[in-house]
Amino acid sequence: MSDRVPLSVLDLAPVPAGVDAGEALRNSMELAQHAERLGYTRHWVAEHHNFPGIASSSPAVLIAHLAMATSTIRVGAGGVMLPNHASLTIAEQFGMLEALHPGRVDLGLGRAPGTDQVTAAALRRGPTQAEDGFPKQLGELLSYFDGSHPRITAVPAQGHRPALWMLGSSDYSAAVAGHLGVPFSFAHHFASGNTAAALAAYRDAFRPSQWLEQPYAMIGVPVVCADTTEHAEFLVGPSALSFTRLRQGRPIQLVTPEEVADYEWSPMEQELLKSWRGPQVIGDPTSVRGQLDDLVERFQVQELMITTMTHSHDDRMKSYELVANAWQSADVFADA
User: Fold this and answer.
1) Residue 297 burial class via C-beta count within 10 angstroms: exposed 0-12, middle 13-18, buried 19 and up
2) Crossing angle of helices 313-328/21-38, nearest 10°?
3) Which of 323, 321, 331, 318 is nearest to 304 (CA)?
4) pTM of the predicted model, to two decimals?
5) What's the CA gap between 34 and 132, in Å, rounded?
6) Which residue intervals define the domain Luciferase-like in the entry (predicted)?
7) CB of 174 closer than 8 Å to CB of 196
8) Are the beta carbons of 140 and 87 closer than 8 angstroms?
């Protein structure tokens, strides 16, 4: 038995410049099959809206296709932004996925909108489902799965509860996860300054449940791996530019690394890049493995979820392959 923690995939179904959304979604299916062959534990897709470079706006629909295209890897949402939806709808969707693919479906829940406020209002048809109503909505969702709702029988959700995860970038979500006794996935990939505090809050609040006896924590890690560190730094350029444009309120599709190589960064963008760089794991296989080992040691997590954003789908596929091979060298993936 290896003492290495499992690795998993976080997929945003990126739509790089020159690619349409249909091709991006087919790329996600190919990546899930690739990840399954390589031994990754789970493949999650994340709900985002009104981003020109992200196609994963409907996790349940995409997960259904990913589950059909694979046979052993766990598939799920990392996550569904619960305030954007009626709890009954999510219960029915993910209950159906679990009924069709028993034992393979994860439902990761977040309370942020996953978009800007205008788009959030359009999704919610007004301000009725605010983030401060999350605990009530979460309780309602759970009642559909366990059959305790006083008036509604949610079919096929009742009796087909997927594995429930809480997602978050704050102590609040961590405490909720601990209180419920469910696994917690922290967004280290964009909130690395709060990783240690949130994980501590989760472990302090944890209460054993029928689903989990001990805390189980996972962090998202942005990784680009290539044959050489120099080439990995070249490939990560489009992600860096995309980040700065997003922070400026001008989201874009991933451009080519060649375009970024000739780009002149403004002083403000250079400052933004300092925060972007913090959680990045970039390098050749040996370097990446060492950096991932350091994260596991520093945060004492039970799993790592890798997210890789490159302009080329082939480069993304190769990065995941290089990481898997490096992680398994001299040993194998740990059991999930």
Assistant:
1) exposed
2) 10
3) 323
4) 0.92
5) 39
6) 8-297
7) no
8) yes
The gap from C-alpha 15 to its chain's centroid, in whole angstroms, comes to 16
pLDDT at 130: 52
What's the average model confidence in pLDDT over 45-61?
94
- Least Cα distance to 36 among 107, 104, 98 occurs for 104
**pLDDT tens digits, one per residue of 34-49:** 999 999 999 999 999 8
Beta pairing partners, 76? 44, 106
Statement: residue 336 has pLDDT above 60: no
Query: In whole numbers, what is the pLDDT of the chain averaged over residues?
Result: 92
Q: Which pair of structure tokens corresponds to residue 128?
A: 């009725």
Cβ–Cβ under 8 Å, residues 119 and 50: yes
Give residue 60's identity as a one-letter amino acid code.
A
Rounded Cα gap, residues 188 and 13, in angstroms: 19
Q: Which domains does the chain have, with CATH numbers?
A: 7-228+280-328 (3.20.20.30)
70's tokens: 């694979």
pLDDT exceeds 80 at position 121: no
For residues 107-111, average pLDDT: 95
2 pLDDT higher than 50: no
How many other C-beta atoms are found inside a 10 Å radius of the C-beta of residue 266? 11
Largest Cα span, the chain:
62
- What is the pLDDT, as a whole number, of residue 207? 98
Q: Are 179 and 121 in contact (CB under 8 A)?
A: no
Average pLDDT over residues 320-332: 85
Q: Is the predicted pLDDT of residue 125 greater than 60, yes or no?
A: no
DSSP state string for 75-143: EEEEEEEGGGS-HHHHHHHHHHHHHHSTT-EEEEEE-S-SS-HHHHHHHHTSTTS-GGGHHHHHHHHHH
**What's the pLDDT at 205?**
98
- Amino acid (one-letter) located at 69: A
Contact residues for 85 (Cβ-Cβ < 8 A; gap 6+): 123, 129
